Amino acid sequence: MKIHLPRWVSIALLCALLPGLYNGLKETHYRLDAGVSPEEIRIVFLSDLHDCAWGEDMDGLLSAVDGQRPDLVLLGGDLFSDGPSSENTVRFLEGIAGRYPCYYVTGNHEYAGGAEAFAARMAVLEGLRIPRLSGEMAEIEVKGVRLNLCGVDDPAAWTGGFDPAAAGWASFEEQLEHVSALPRNSGYTILLSHRPEKYDLYCSYDFDLVLAGHAHGGQWAVPGLLNGVYAPGQGYFPKYAGGRFEKDGTVMIVGRGLARAARHVPRFYNPPEMVVIDLY
Fold first, then answer.
1. How many angstroms separate the CA atoms of 193 and 212, rounded?
2. In this model, does residue 266 exceed pLDDT 90?
3. How many Å apart are CA 27 and CA 33, to the nearest integer?
4. Of the chain's two ends, which shows fewer C-beta atoms within 10 Å, N or C?
């Protein structure tokens, strides 16, 4: 049995669906009270690029970052793809390295393809002098304000033949425990971790801000009704698909990722996102 919809219904459906397929870059701004004065500190947070192209030589993404004039660029993992090429990611990292203070933590895709592929990706960071925080804390100063920047490896580091224990880490939880226990200055403390589904665990420590990715915004969203349909590590209707969350004094901001292309289904009402945070 064929169903024939009136033309006006078909046009209305098309008008509702087409905007949902928009995959241009969305810039989402947050303003957080961190006791910073007199100048605000601007952080750009990026994750889940998956080696996706953004214009010739990545100019589309680079110009978007430049337009924010960030004081700090934080990279939340999965900028690399599990495919054979990292050309777009390398071009982007070359474009920001040396121009902004940058820090990186791994996502699950950095570990895809085995130890040799992982080493090659990390060699890119090392060659560009972009520090990778692997169960470490960097005490940095921005505009005269002290910040404690902590970072942990993705849990994928403990699977697939990798052995972080050889470097002294028995588990993801131990690495997190270690960074939380490191002596800090009196400044604001930020945790970079790829996985938002660990939020309850992060809240058991005294981090002021957690930045995470991985969920890709739940892939599909319904504006005003549904934040996301499915996210890895959380399943259907994920709680932490993207956005701002707060519990026990710890704020978590989850970026929706930068990948424009989808392997299985397109993004729907969920455009790629660059997160901009002003600490004041």
1. 5
2. no
3. 20
4. N
Q: Is 39 inside a domain boundary?
A: yes
| Structure token digits, residue 78 | 């999965």
Cβ contact 104:131 at 8 Å: yes
Query: Which CATH number do you get for residue 20?
Result: 3.60.21.10
Count of CB atoms situated within 10 Å of the CB of 71: 19
- Tell me the residue range of the domain where 17 lies: 7-279
Cα torsion 173, 77, 196, 139: sign: positive
User: pTM (2 decimals)?
Assistant: 0.91
In a domain, 150, yes or no: yes
Q: What is the pLDDT of residues 172-218, one digit of tens each?
A: 999 999 999 998 887 899 999 999 999 999 999 999 999 999 999 99
Pairing of strands 209-212, 188-192: parallel
Query: Domains in the chain: how many in total?
Result: 1
pLDDT tens digits, 131-166 = 999 999 999 999 989 999 999 999 999 986 677 666
Q: Which of the 8 DSSP states describes residue 200?
A: H
The answer to whether residue 2 is domain-embedded is: no
